[in-house]
Amino acid sequence: MKIKIFRGLIVLFILSVLLISGCDSKCGNGKIDKDETPETCCLDAGCIGEQICGDNVCVEPTCGACQYLDVENHICVDYECCGDDDCYRDEICQKHECSKLNCGDCQYISNYKCVDYECCEDSECNTGETCQKHECSKLN
Predict the structure, then answer these.
(1) Dist. CA 41–CA 133, nearest whole Å
(2) What 3-state DSSP class applies to 44?
(3) Which helix (DSSP H) or strand (DSSP E) does residue 132 occupy?
């Protein structure tokens, strides 16, 4: 008789454990419910900025290729530029910021680079040529 009672208690205990473990918390419903706290961040609402909840710990977001993590606000922020194409035609991208391109006196900007003119003075042209509008042309 004691064995039957003991077996019955074991079965009851196993069923109770299965029943309890089958009940999910309300984690992820947009509210902080019983047994949930912002510190355990059962849902992303307990985290700051764009942090997400992973294993009950707030995790910084993974930023994109042209972004950086604003650590203070826990958000991904776009860089001003990641390539020259992100800037105006007279600028280049340096350290993720657009900077004015400064060409020399006898240069012009083309495809985000300083390019030398063919000429700026007659002395840069062949004999019998003159420099007009930065191009060497034959004298008339």
Answers:
(1) 68
(2) helix
(3) strand 129-132
